[in-house]
From TrEMBL:
HAMAP family: Pep_deformylase
Source superkingdom: Bacteria
Free-text comment on the cofactor: Binds 1 Fe(2+) ion.
EC number: 3.5.1.88
Family: Belongs to the polypeptide deformylase family.
EC top class named in words: hydrolase
Name used for this protein in its record: Peptide deformylase
One GO process term, biological-process aspect: translation
GO molecular function terms noted in the UniProt entry: metal ion binding; peptide deformylase activity
Active site: 138
Length: 173
């Protein structure tokens, strides 16, 4: 397993619609394992394939934050939201592609998601709490959408400029 570099916003690959996965290959399994390792290393609770430059509909997540609790690494292939609650929840979200920037985003409090696992089996689960926020944030990535797209244009611009500056500084190192 390898820790892969995470793309930092702004990057055209973070704005693209990802392709559905059509075949479960060894390469895809290796990508999923790398993505989990990259996510835990960051550390983060979710990571979508386009964030490591893989333009396919796959995401990983583990919202168990208690270090004493058993981890629950999840790999979701071709995830689809099949139901959303009317009730909403506001979370201060962040993103591994937008380091150290956080903002309140309101989303449905609970969602039902259908996906394919790494064995090719169909799965469906209803998520609540941080899991619901995380899975919606990651599915957005597969559609080229970032959490800052929910903010006002002014706030979004401010964060984007900060990221451009960060990238310029990184490039100089
Ligand atoms: Zn993100």
């Amino acid at each position: 397993m390898t820790i892969r570099p995470i793309l930092i916003h702004p990057d055209p690959r973070l704005k693209k619609l990802c392709d559905p996965v059509t075949e479960l290959t060894d390469e895809l399994r290796a990508t999923a394992a790398d993505m989990l390792e990259t996510m835990y290393d960051a550390p983060g609770v979710g990571l979508a394939a386009p964030q490591v430059g893989v333009m396919q509909r796959m995401l990983v997540m583990d919202c168990i934050k208690d270090p004493e609790a058993k981890p629950r690494p999840m790999v979701l292939i071709n995830p689809e939201v099949t139901w959303t609650s009317d009730e909403t929840n506001t979370y201060e979200e962040g993103c591994l592609s937008i380091p150290e920037q956080y903002a309140d985003v309101t989303r449905p409090a609970e969602v039902k998601v259908r996906w394919m696992d790494l064995e090719g089996a169909a799965q469906e689960e209803q998520f609540a709490g941080l899991w619901a926020t995380c899975v919606q944030h990651e599915i957005d990535h597969l559609n080229g959408k970032l959490f800052i797209d929910y903010l006002t244009p002014l706030k979004r611009q401010l964060i984007t400029r900060k990221m451009q500056k960060l990238k310029r500084e990184k490039a100089r190192l």
